[in-house]
Amino acid sequence: MIYRLFILVFFVVFNFAFSEVYTPETLKEKEEFSKLQKEKIIIALIDDPFYNLSYPNINSLNTTMENFLKNYMQLNVTFKKVPYKNLQRDIKSGIINGIALIPKNQIFDDKLDFSDSIFSEELYVISQNESIHSLNDLNNKIIYTSHTEPYINILKAVLDNNDLHAYPIPVDNLKKYDEKLILTTNPVLYKPKYGIKIGHSPGIAIALSHKYLNLIPYINNALNSNYRKKFIDQLNTLNRSISYNNFYTSLAPEEKEYLKNHKPIKVIYEKDTDSLVSYKSQIDGKYKGIAPNIFKALKNNLGINFVDITSTDYKTITDLKTKGFDATVLSKTQKRSKDFIFSEKIYEVGTYIINLDNSPSSSKTIGVLKDSVEEHIAQRYDINKNIIIFDDFNSMVKALDDRKVGNLLVTNKEYFDSNKYNIILFETIPVNFMFNKEDVVLRDIINKAFEYSIDLKNFAELSQLERDAENKIVYLKNREIKDTLIIFSIVFIFIIFAISVYLYKERLNKKNLLKDSLTNLPNRFIFDKFCNEENSLTGSTFVIDLNNFKNINDSLGHEFGDVILKEFANFLKNSFIDSHIFRISGDEFYGFSFESHEEIIGKLKKYKDFCPTLLKYNITFNLGVSHKTANISLATSFKYSDLAMLETKKEKSKFYKIADDKFIEKMDRESSILSLLKEDISGIYPMFQPKYCIKTNRIIGAEALARYSSLELGPIGPFEFIPIAEKYNFIHKVDYKIAKESIVFIRDLLESEVSLDNFRISFNISMKTFKRDDLITVLTGLLNYFKVPGKYIEVEITESIFILDMKDLITKLKALKNLGIQISLDDFTAGHSTAGLLPLLPMDVVKFDKSLLDSLEVNKSKGKIVYKNLTSLIKDLNFKIVSEGVETKEQLEFLKFLGVDYAQGYYFSKPISKDEFTTEVKTL
């Protein structure tokens, strides 16, 4: 009886001592913690699909949090599930005293204190339908998010750092939008086809009201002692369970039956490969890499039992036909596809051309291994007589060294010393798992595992990290062995390096110091060398570009085109005997001459006007000439010549242009402005020129005019930066920036509760921007994001836009109208005659160009007749009229007499700043 009592007491004491209950270490801490345990605390559990998710025998993260606070820490806590969007409200009202599993953020800083991080998650943008491959694919897109503000802020920061913009829209249920773009930390919940990682979430923590600050250190200690690892294990288990569930529910009945009864699946790897796909470890002799890691994950996570038999039993591909093994890793080829089946691609490896310098006539031959993917690739590009097939790798390399074969096509470039061989990337090839033709069910299971459970990209990154770590270990081990020889090794390596560099430079010189094979003129390599070494020369540089040459090649053939190039090259050599002439590209020639501009232009003009070949085939050329002085480099002088040549193509008045000081100053300033605009368009801002109702003399809106200011160049007029933006194809960035600022301006007025009846802000959309496919998406996104109705916006287009496809133009105009946006035709009669098109277009307003009013000063009577008739025409078409450039009271009275609706110009106001215009509007 006493024995039994002793046993009972022992078990009670043992259970108490080792039960899962948090206990502070010191007596003082125990006393303080005991008081804290008695305080009533209401904790919000975020009502999130992932945090609520559980499986049989697997608790949800929220349940794990309940066990931690209530059972492990034994706090007097009540839990309440709250959607994230209601947390701030409930904290502020005192309904809750804290939040569990919340990302650390500054939003709650004034109300809550945070524990140490429990875990962190990765943040993704995913979609089932929309293809995403890089951050650029998110530009100007709508992205649906949860209400978790820290995640939205991370997304905005990442996009902003990459000069991109998107429109995050918080929603209650992301599942409804999984066919769109969504932001999530749990992509496995949505089975996406596409996705990219944005970054990491802030640490997930426990946050308590300031009055419970003293409890935070105990929570941190409890997490450190045991529970942080439990949370992380729980997180990983849930992710694996979701992945497995996604995978298993995708299987057909026969696939599930296969998994239930399958025998170990025997795998072999290529023995003579050092690829990241699979390689033999130098440390433990096991096969590692992408493929082994995938097989390991399939075994551990999905229960598919793969066994590596590479080292125990030598097999060939033929044995796969007879079921000597079940799977291997090879590239898919047409020949192999006749006998085997393949999984989806698991990786891509490069194939490389390997050769020696100065190879004899056999250089056209190429060596490949028998039955390899390299053999298949070689047969696609060359004839069989040039392809030499080898049974083993070593004999193939020996044949190259003995110059019995000119080139090798291989995948394992690591074998070849770059000091001895030329190594040239030829083509990347996909790598797959290969199976017996009968194993269709196994192949389909593996493909479904790739789709629903295995992230192949992550395996490539993981395998590279493992290999880097192994290489480092091997390197340190080898260095330890060779420490005693280090001095001799350094000397030896230095000598070899010096010799290798010398030989490399010699080979490079022999290889590149060649003349153009067609014209026998020096090539670009010699041109670059000339520019680097002869900067002290003074004279003239010139650049010539032949026109209509592509048509000659297309119509008469490249051989005839080559004859013309040779003839032109011979003319240059014979005409500029003491000069340096180069053929840079197909139909472009560069030259340096000691002759004057006039002499160079004269010779080329005479040749252009009297050469029978050029005249017969309508071939012309453009010429740019620059004076090379001692204080500028040859490269700079040639740059100015090239710019001058390009300018002649645009001007079309003369075939030549001289890059004089004025031209160079203009180009340098344009280059400076271009560099600033490319680097940052934050200096673009709007000025607002008010529009007035002529009848009431009240402001009815304004035109937002683009302006630019930089720290380097100060204010830059639109007559400078607008043409540059158009020329270099980023005028859309300027248009979209002004559109955004205009919409934000309206948003600010609405939030200030300013009355905006019949009030609109207009901005210009250029022809190039109007051609873009994203125009409607961007404007829709801006209006939705800033919650501004389209009725406050007016888009101005110019008459030049009518050269676009009329069907596409009308479609886009109607789309803008559907948003409530008003359409205005700007600069009417400023350079195009489009009156006949007006009835066809969904327009609202026609803006008469300032030149119409200016014409009244030249011939008042005729000018008034023109203005009156145009006004009558536009009114008959039921369009409103805005008269631009009103500068005098007399002009205003004339417009009032004609019944013109609106006016803008210096008589009323010059363009003013946002703040000044805001003041004007608020006084209406």
Automatic annotation (TrEMBL):
<feature type="domain" description="EAL">
    <location>
        <begin position="666"/>
        <end position="924"/>
    </location>
</feature>
<keyword id="KW-1133">Transmembrane helix</keyword>
<dbReference type="Pfam" id="PF00990">
    <property type="entry name" value="GGDEF"/>
</dbReference>
<dbReference type="InterPro" id="IPR050706">
    <property type="entry name" value="Cyclic-di-GMP_PDE-like"/>
</dbReference>
<keyword id="KW-0472">Membrane</keyword>
<dbReference type="Pfam" id="PF00497">
    <property type="entry name" value="SBP_bac_3"/>
</dbReference>
<dbReference type="InterPro" id="IPR029787">
    <property type="entry name" value="Nucleotide_cyclase"/>
</dbReference>
<dbReference type="InterPro" id="IPR001638">
    <property type="entry name" value="Solute-binding_3/MltF_N"/>
</dbReference>
<feature type="domain" description="GGDEF">
    <location>
        <begin position="537"/>
        <end position="661"/>
    </location>
</feature>
<feature type="transmembrane region" description="Helical">
    <location>
        <begin position="485"/>
        <end position="504"/>
    </location>
</feature>
<dbReference type="InterPro" id="IPR000160">
    <property type="entry name" value="GGDEF_dom"/>
</dbReference>
<dbReference type="InterPro" id="IPR001633">
    <property type="entry name" value="EAL_dom"/>
</dbReference>
<keyword id="KW-0812">Transmembrane</keyword>
<dbReference type="InterPro" id="IPR035919">
    <property type="entry name" value="EAL_sf"/>
</dbReference>
<dbReference type="Pfam" id="PF00563">
    <property type="entry name" value="EAL"/>
</dbReference>
<dbReference type="GO" id="GO:0071111">
    <property type="term" value="F:cyclic-guanylate-specific phosphodiesterase activity"/>
</dbReference>
<dbReference type="InterPro" id="IPR043128">
    <property type="entry name" value="Rev_trsase/Diguanyl_cyclase"/>
</dbReference>
<protein>
    <submittedName>
        <fullName>Diguanylate cyclase domain protein</fullName>
    </submittedName>
</protein>
